[in-house]
Amino acid sequence: MGVQIFLVSSRREHLRSATTDNLVDVGYHGWTRLILRGPDDELNEVQQYKANVRKQLISNGYRIWGIVGDQYSSFEGLPSVRRSFKLPNPFYYVS
């Protein structure tokens, strides 16, 4: 259907292998790309980091249809998206 899935996490790049293994172990398959925080991103707040990733994806020609996340920081900042899906997280909340 022409939809590509990008997983954007505030986890650090050095955790890529463990993150990928965990995603596969719990049944996540078929994503286009896993985007993690590099050293240049670590000084940015999570909200700014994720907004910057959205800007980069748009500048690369992608249209962002929606965002699914468990923290409001995933949705905040510009550019905004058409749809946001906030999932509950009983374990932690980032204010």
Automatic annotation (TrEMBL):
The source's superkingdom equals: Eukaryota
Asked if the keyword Signal belongs to this entry, the reply reads: yes
Could you list this entry's UniProt keywords, alphabetically sorted.
Signal
Quote any Pfam family the record assigns: Acid_phosphat_B
Q: Which PANTHER family match?
A: ACID PHOSPHATASE (PTHR31284:SF24), ACID PHOSPHATASE-LIKE PROTEIN (PTHR31284)
Q: What is this protein called?
A: PLANT ACID PHOSPHATASE
Biological source species: Salix koriyanagi
